[in-house]
Amino acid sequence: MTKDGLEIRAVTKTFEGLTALSDVTFSLEDGKIMGIIGPNGAGKTTLFNVISGFLRADQGQMVYHGKDISSLKPHQVVDLGMARTFQIVRPFKSMSVFENTIVAALSPRSRRSRPKGVKSDETAMNVLGRVALDHKRDEPVSNLPMGDLRRLEIARALATYPQFILLDEPFSGLSLKEMDALAGLIRNLLDEKCTILIIEHKLKILMSLAPRILVLDYGKVLADGTPAEIADNESVIRAYLGRRGHAGVDTTN
Amino acid sequence: MNIVTRIWGTLISRPPFYVMAIFLLFMLLVPFLTDDLYLIGVLVLANVYAIFASSWDILSGYSGKENFGHTLFIGAGAYGAAYLNLYLGVPPMLNLLLCGLIGAVFGVLIGIPCLPLVGPYLALATMAAASIAERLTMILSKYTGGEEGLYGLDPITDGPVGDYYLSLILVIITTIILMAIGYSKQGLILRSIKEDETASEAAGINTTRYKLVAFAISAFFAGMGGAFYAHYQMYTGPSSLSIIMAVTIIIVCMIGGMGTIVGPVLAAYMLTVSNEFLRSIGDLRLLVYTGLLVVIVLFLPRGVFTVILERLPRFGQKSRGV
Amino acid sequence: MVALEILIYGAVLSGIYALLAVGFALIFGVARVINLTHGAFYMLGAYITYALSVLLNVPLILSIIGGMAIVFLLAICLDRFIIERIRTTMINVLITTLALSLFADQVILQIFGPDNRNIPAVISDRVTLLGVDIAGQRLLSLIISVAVIATLWLIITRTRMGNALLATAQDPEAAQLMGINTGRMFMITMGIAAMMAALAGGIVGSFLTVAPEMGMLPIIKAFSIVILGGLGSIGGSIIAALLIGYLETIVAYLISFNATELVPLVVIFITLIFRPAGIFGKRRGF
Ligand SMILES: Nc1ncnc2c1ncn2[C@@H]1O[C@H](COP(=O)(O)OP(=O)(O)OP(=O)(O)O)[C@@H](O)[C@H]1O
Ligand SMILES: [Mg+2]
């Protein structure tokens, strides 16, 4: 086992009899991006919740940069440099775009990681610029369309200076133009050596970004490989087409 | 010079600040405008309620941890003051500080177990905690004086005007500190916890720590207020722990506007004074408060003063930042 | 001997608590509302029964029914004009209903004064049961509690209205789609629960004190019982009511009458901290 990257070993999580994750194992090196797909209810979000400390795994180990993260609280996971976004956006509704971002810029991780002399306001403005929301800084988030709320989620994650980002369906609800911009941002983050785990139903754009894809079904890892391998994999095709029709797959852009 | 202009700039650029400053300056003049000692006495009570309400607000109004047993901290301060003064001879002024600390200790002791609780669970737990304390004063009547309470505390100043000024100074100290917290970045973090604790954690905030500190600060000022009230009345009794009092404080905050400090403070004066004017028709406090509360939750759910403050102008340069 | 007394008196007390708590749980289960006016309904039931029977000489049974009817109407108005509009904000519901119940205390205090009142008993004879001497009315209250809760159980599980209630409890939106008028279900639940509280008030009036603040502690207890039993679970509430009822009786007999109010509060506080979802686990459903 290396001291780099993230190692997930035999992680299992059940909810009152329902097995949401079963013996999930994979690892991801620093600076790499991996996509996660699977039908609705496959356990993708649960996997994120377990990694980011919002849920405790029943069994298994999770190691990031040589440190066991399985019993950490969410803010401690952020403190190690792993930030996440939510599939169902969770803005602070009564606050402005800027205030939303500032909360993350006030986290200990952010304070510690930014260059000396930079203030939390500047960090917040900076990340808002990266996601192209700076012109809306003083707007209350209750007025924002879905595309903006998705980017606000990402801005909040970025304001904690993450080295590792977990994106839960960041492209859903975005226009074509916004999707291009977001794909560009993700490539930039990779250039900056950020590690990325991304759940996405929009396969075309996911495959253009991620050279490696993990398929979950009923909480199990069904396949783990390149987009081409995944597309040819018998059991993947069956999981998507056989039992549940097209549930959850969106091959449009 | 520099610092003065900066304070002035912040003051006039934010309605809650200048409204509070103008109001408190006016209150400083009241004894020059009237020598009606009864009215002064009513205003002392209003000062005390302003401390209780604003200290509730910094925890519950900001972080959303609605405390239905704020009286536990008030009572801890009041009984603490009685014991320290009666048995150890601690002077009243020192008691204000010590009993604030006693309150804060209770805040942490109650805060730690209550932190994971939300909504009705927290409401019931805090209500139960205050009721337990109230019951204990009855059961341990040998030490607490039971229903009669404890008498004979030293007066804290030498007269009504002194009491008035001291309580007003406590209000000023309390509001300056609580507003400095509430309108700072720490206040923003507390608000984010109220909005969505999960998202706040995801943003890297140790929400547990913030909530605990909020509990301690809230309880500190409640304990200090309780100690003042005990010395002012030279008496303390189980009514300082009653659910009715706890509920009254919450109602004051809801009518004024939770999460603003100014709203609860102004509402404390508005309600206490109007209640006294209605006293001639019997003790109508709860009737009036409840009637107002229902109107407010139905038609102005964010509170009277929140709505007014938002309509007031900002002066000076547009303040950036939070 | 003491054991038998505890057995019987504990059952009587538990029955009354269950009558209050089950209604309270029903409101939460169906409407997701924590209605703290429930204790006031209990108090009002007692006072209306008192006013009708003692002051206006209406026959006692009719007075109790009258109390239930008036409280039913009050509860429906409360739901229609206030709770319906603030249902979604938990703190508003909690504090408004709590304030309203204090309001009701004050109104009754202004009308009837602070003195304790007494309502005559339906059965004024004393009965000997298993060698324990007990007021007939106490026994009657136990029988009524059991009968009412059993009837409610049958209504919920066997009738169409019960099905609609259950559907609303499980998923209000789905129920709405199935053509159930959920707003009406909320109102009916509120009315039924309030009637049960008023009934409890009417029958305890001969052996417990009737005073303006009589609803305050019971509501904290009902709240506690319902949370101990798992919010919204009727079965859990009944078990928790037995637990608290017996606990109080045992404390009253073996420790001191003074401590009876304290013990349940301590139990609820500790339970909340260690098992926030209640002793019986589930957070929702019946
Ligand atoms: N907190 C929870 N309590 C109980 N069950 C849960 C919880 N979270 C998730 N589940 C269940 O676990 C299973 C996996 O859910 P999860 O949200 O991880 O799926 P997903 O792969 O993200 O699906 P989607 O594509 O719809 O987002 C589902 O059956 C879901 O109902
Ligand atoms: Mg998901």
Task: Provide a count of the helices of chain A.
Answer: 10
Shape of chain A: globular
- The rounded Rg of chain C comes to 18 Å
Described by its quaternary structure, the protein is heterotrimer
Provide the β-strand percentage band of chain A: 15-25%
Please indicate the percent range of residues of chain C in DSSP E strands (runs of 2 or more): under 5%
Q: Distance N terminus to C terminus of chain A? A: 37 Å
Low-confidence stretches of chain C: none
| Helix share bin of chain C | over 70%
Largest sheet of chain C: 2 strands, antiparallel
Number of helices, where a helix is a run of at least 4 consecutive DSSP H or I residues of chain C = 11
Query: Which strand order spans the largest sheet of chain A, edge to edge or round the barrel?
Result: 6-7-8-3-9-10
What does this 3D model show about the protein?
The complex is a heterotrimer of chains A (253), B (322) and C (286). Chain A has ten helices and ten strands. By secondary structure, chain A is of the alpha/beta class. In chain A, helix 3 (97-105) crosses helix 5 and helix 5 crosses helix 6 (146-158). Chain B is mostly helical. Chain B has helices at 2-13, 15-33, 37-63, 71-88, 92-114, 119-139, 141-144, 160-182, 185-195, 197-202, 207-233, 243-256, 262-277, 285-299, 304-311; strands at residues 150-151, 235-236. The radius of gyration of chain B is 19 Å and the shape is globular. The model of chain B has no long low-confidence stretch (mean pLDDT 90). In chain C, strands 1-2 form a two-stranded antiparallel sheet. Chain C is globular, with a radius of gyration of 18 Å. In chain C, helix 2 packs across helix 8. Chain C has 286 residues and is an all-alpha fold. Chains B and C meet through helix 6, helix 12 and helix 14 of B and helix 3, helix 4, helix 9 and helix 11 of C. Adenosine-5'-triphosphate is lined by residues 15, 18, 20, 38, 40-46, 87, 248 of chain A.
